[in-house]
Amino acid sequence: MTARIIDGKTIAAELRARVADEVARVKREHNLLPGLAVVLVGNDPASEVYVRSKHTQTQAAGMASFEHKLPADVSQDELLALIARLNRDPAVHGILVQLPLPKGLHTETIINAIDPAKDVDGLHPHNAGRLAGGFAALSPCTPLGCIILTKSVHASIEGMNAIVIGRSNLVGRPLLQLLLNENATVTIAHSRSRDLPELTRRADLVYAAVGRPEMVRADWVKPGATVIDVGINRLPTTEGKTRLVGDVAFEEVRRVAGAITPVPGGVGQMTVACLLVNTLRAACAIAGAPKPAV
Ligand code: NDP
To answer: Is the pLDDT score of 72 beyond 90?
Structure first.
């Protein structure tokens, strides 16, 4: 058996096209131009690539994109002052502070300063708490993408056994809540979990969000399970370059799983597409317009 490959690239492109249609509609019907502000502090090369891709895709969807680049030695007060300005700016509906922040800046204080209505990364405690309580919330983009990819395989995941490996605020914890909202039965595993291969083998849905190259092996996976690989690990090649691998040993697991996401070309593609969805939803909510159809 060989698993169906879940094509994140195509699914993300379809989602971006639906967002662009809705952006055109809200402009026409409500005179509303959704705007996303991205704040990049310092010059971490990976963060620069992500920010550039967010800028390009935001503009391609017909939304306004505002980039704020600050030096690595910016003071916490200056960064907080920028966030306060963006909170007040009526052209800005989404604010994203690119993480990780340079040392010396207190991430929690910065995230807590963002207006929860504009918190399109879904990391503010207000949104995390609402999500945990089962209420409508802006939810983190990568877990939202994982759910969409899962639903490209299973129309309903009600009653299915899911395992989420990793419990970060960015991925594992919100993914647990989104899966619960879909009525899956969820196990959440982490570095202290015992007998992870055995726990994983029980799952119909496997989500790996750890940051350890190819940790999930073929004999961890129940035949036919759906495997969503969140991990992005850069490994050196013999030519002195780097290649991306996930947290799942793709070549061997694809022979056991029913469906699997590749790295690259899987979850990573969905994250920015879901950021556009969140920005559109935030803009409609702030403007008092009806919920968009994405
Ligand atoms: P974190 O480092 O914040 O969290 C990693 C989690 O994995 C922790 O909960 C940790 O457990 C757990 N863990 C570590 N080692 C083990 C182990 N041996 N067995 C079981 N669990 C373990 O990472 P993130 O959640 O931010 O990211 C996870 C991965 O996803 C990374 O590769 C990252 O690059 C990628 N990523 C990809 C995105 C995308 O768009 N595709 C977006 C965000 C992240 P504990 O809590 O006990 O320490």
So the answer is: yes
Regarding whether 154 and 70 lie in a shared domain, the answer is: no
Six-digit token pair at 51? 């920010």
Per the CB < 8 A criterion, the answer to whether 250 and 232 are in contact is no
**Residue 39 belongs to what domain range?**
28-118+271-294
Q: What angle do CA 112, 140, 69 make, to 5 degrees?
A: 60
The Å distance, Cα 138 to ligand 1 centre, comes to 21
Give nearest CA residue, ligand 1 atom 39. Answer: 268
Sign of the Cα torsion 39, 20, 139, 115 reads: positive
Assess contact for 258 and 226: CB atoms under 8 A. yes
Q: Is the pLDDT of residue 262 over 90?
A: yes
How far apart are alpha carbons 207 and 148 in whole angstroms?
13
For residue 221, pLDDT over 90 is answered with yes
Specify whether 288 is located in the same domain as 253.
no
